[in-house]
Amino acid sequence: MAKKSKTHIFTGRTVTEAVNMAKAKLGSNFTIVDRRRVTHKNLLSLLSMNKLGGDSEVELEVAINPLPDKEAPAKVKTDGPIHPLLKTYAKAESLAEQSRKMVASQRLAPAELGETSHGLAGHLQDIKHVMTEVTRDNREFRDEINRDYREMRNEMHRLFSLQGRGGLPKVGPELLKLYQILVDDDVDSEVARELVENLDLDEKVLSEGTIALHNALTREIAKRIPVAGPILLREDGPTVVAFIGPTGVGKSTTVAKLAVDFSLRGRQVGLINEDRSRPAADYQLKNLGQIMTMPAETASSPEDMRHLIESMSDLDLILIDTGGRSPRDKSGLDELADMLEAAKPDETHLVLASVTASRNIADITERFRPLNFNRLILSKLDEIPSYGTLLTLAAALGDGISYVTTGQKYKDSFLTAESAPLAGLVTGTYILVNGRLQVAGRDRNGGDLSC
């Protein structure tokens, strides 16, 4: 009757290290009963950002192989602690030794030698099969370790990247993930940190998980995106609206879109072009005027501007397209200021491309501020590389956004600005599809979304 085996625990950084520790204490005659990974808590585990959760080690549970009560077999040589090999290897070694002795003494007949060789070959085949299984298991385990290492390395790089962008906010792991989403989407790190640190969450929201947190963050961001609403028409005369901004931001296209939209809604619209430096702008508006049967004229001086507005006094809406000015062109800005003084617009919309670098926004707005704009239009929303810049823009500007544009088509390519959908673009709860904003339906992890 075999004696009951006792188990021992050995822990090492790798399987090999743990096996060597077992060999040093128990010799080679033992069985691996269980193999598991243990984790020591560290910064990554506290942040719940790592699959491993901390420093990982391998823990082996081994048992000494039971021996018969009467007689122990001769010690079997083996290169490792893999128990399934022991019996097969011992048998093969014994047969091999017998074969060598019998062949040397010529005491075996050819038939007997063949039978012994056949038995030896069968046991060697068993060893080959077991070793193949062991090799495959070791390869799979090695691949698993490599995957875990790559994941740990990537998480460490991401953590250090977050730390390098201004330091981590003092929040729990759930909100830290939201912070990571924001900065990965190019939200300024200071704005992102302030958002998650000031996010007021009750126990109910925290217990509902990721989806509730995403929606709560969307609502908080929406509070920080001011909107001004669409153009409001006066009842006692034409509403005069001017559009200003740097070169190439899409002012003429935006004016054309608005003209088509109001015209299709039955409003009488007039167009005035102030851009004398770009002949194509004059042609574009006059061509649109012919197609839509609306007056389209060019003002070459402040006196022309006043005269043209008076001549369109029976219309509902007059849209003024101005030439692009460099923010550093003081004389050009002064000239534009004289034209706007003559026009006396009810609303002046500063048009900015969404793709404008955040660091340039403050400079542009301050240099156009003397022109007394009171609305913002964000153009080229479909070209923006990451929607987090919307939040950075809103934080830097502080002025209400009236419209956003999403393409070159006159129809279905501009939208009245609304805080919730724009905030949803930042958090991923909204998406832009064919120039329209719609609820994403699924969050980044596949969960249902609702706002």
Could you give a quick summary of the protein structure above?
With 451 residues, the protein is α/β, with parallel strands linked by helices.
3D architecture notes:
The chain is built from 15 helices and 13 strands. It has 451 residues and is of the alpha/beta class. It is elongated. Helix 9 packs parallel to helix 10 (279-292). The chain has an eight-stranded mixed beta sheet with strand order 6-5-7-4-8-9-10-11, with helices on both faces. Strands 1-3-2 form a three-stranded antiparallel beta sheet. The chain has a two-stranded antiparallel ribbon with strand order 12-13. Strand 12 (430-433) and strand 13 form a beta hairpin. It folds into three domains: 7-68 and 76-157, no CATH class; 168-223, no CATH class; 239-417, 3-Layer(aba) Sandwich (Rossmann fold).
